[in-house]
Amino acid sequence: MTSFIRLCLVLLGICTLAACQKKDDATTAATGGDTVKIAFMGALTGDVAMYGKPTLEGMKMAAEEINAAGGVLGKKIEIIEADNRGDKQEGAALAQKFTSRDRVAAIVGDPTTGIAKVVAPIAQKAGVVMLSAGSTGPGVVEIGEYIFRNTLLDNVAIPALIDYFARDLGFRKVAMITSDNNDYSVGLSRTFSDAAKGRGIQIVADEKVKDGDKDFSAQVTNIKAKNPDVIFFSGYYTEGALIMKEARKQGMKVNMFGGDGISASTFLELGGSAVEGSVAYLGFSPEQTSGETAAFVENFKKRTGQVPEMFGAQGYDAVKLLADAMKRAGSTDPKLFRTALAQTKNFPGVSGTVTIRPNREPVKSPLCLLEVKGGKYVLKARVPVKLD
Questions:
Q1: What distance in Å separates the CA atoms of residue 45 and residue 146, rounded to the nearest whole number?
Q2: Cβ–Cβ < 8 Å for 183, 117
Q3: Exposed/middle/buried for 332, CB within 10 Å: 0-12, 13-18, 19+?
Q4: Are 275 and 352 part of one and the same domain?
Q5: Of residues 265 and 12, which shows the higher confidence score?
Q6: Do 90 and 199 fall within a single domain?
Q7: How many domains does the chain have?
Q8: Phi and psi at residue 87, to the nearest 5°
Q9: Under the phi-then-psi rule, with left for phi > 0, alpha for psi from -120 to 50, and beta for the rest, what region is 177?
């Protein structure tokens, strides 16, 4: 019996040593060698490719600039890319691949809240930093200490937007439309509803739709009867454009306000004249820029032939933020640069000056309102955000 117990202890020791060795090998793979791997998580095809494609372009731009200047701690940044097609299951599968096979040091993405919430637990368990350059809804960074984001948050932006509604535009009655099978939309509507209380804004209609719907006649009929000053839609560009086409068909003159979900060329192309006057709020505008932001805008245009939007700027900033954290930590090990990233103060990003709060959420100002005029987005106003 004593010999058997000794044998079991020896075997247990061997297994423990093997497990530790495997973990050490994973860390070495992520931090050793001549490159540091940063993965892109987002869609390059499908309905939300409008967010993924510019995010990836911004990431590549930043990596090329950093590498041309000598890299990070003597290592070149390598961007690992794949297409999750805007699908949660594919996002989860890619997260497993990035963390286990590719052994990346960090993941940038997903730009959408729904997929970010699926990817975050996988990154957290693997000890890989995830920095979302677009998700704004609740329930993302709360997943763990390796999860961050660098976008202007809805719970910060919405109070400023509502104050602008009441103070500058004289809006009092708002019709709210939520896509109830969309995590981003549900969270944004909840934030808007909570923030409206006590600010002189009345939600006179609270309609529900779903991503993928085509017929919005019933919802618009109900809204028209309430005679609102504005429609606040918390969903994405396809449904937003179709809602406005139906509103114009029924003779409604009010315009739509929304978040970055309605900031996309598809919104303009599909909506046509019906979306003229619509306004999206974002944390970035390429207009009236200077310094590094102006240089970024020009370089992005030369690279892609397109004017950068929020996602391109935040993808660019995400890689620069990660590189900055690695340099301050003196290491490309996520366990070490994670702490440095959490201590980021007044980082001069092209999408705004960024400070990371203790809860790993960013503080950014101002709020940019982009209005559709002549078939394109034009800066309507920069609204200051109260930073507590």
A1: 28
A2: yes
A3: buried
A4: no
A5: 265
A6: no
A7: 2
A8: -110, 130
A9: beta
Amino acid, res. 153: L
pLDDT in tens, 360-378: 999 887 889 999 999 999 9
CATH number, domain containing residue 188: 3.40.50.2300
- Please enumerate in sequence order all residues whose Cβ is within 8 A of that of 261, keeping only pairs 6 or more positions apart, or say none: 184, 185, 188, 233, 234, 235, 236, 237, 240, 280
Per residue in 237-248, pLDDT tens? 999 999 999 999
Residue 187 burial (CB count, 10 A): 23
Rounded distance, CA 20 to CA 138, Å? 35
* CA 95 – CA 102 distance, rounded (Å): 10
pLDDT, tens digit, for every residue of 64-102?
A: 999 999 999 999 999 999 999 999 999 999 999 999 999
Q: Which residue has the tokens 């960090």?
A: 106
Buried b (16+ CB within 10 A) or exposed e, 105-123: bbbbbbbbbbbbbbbbebb
Beta bridge partners of 257: 232, 279
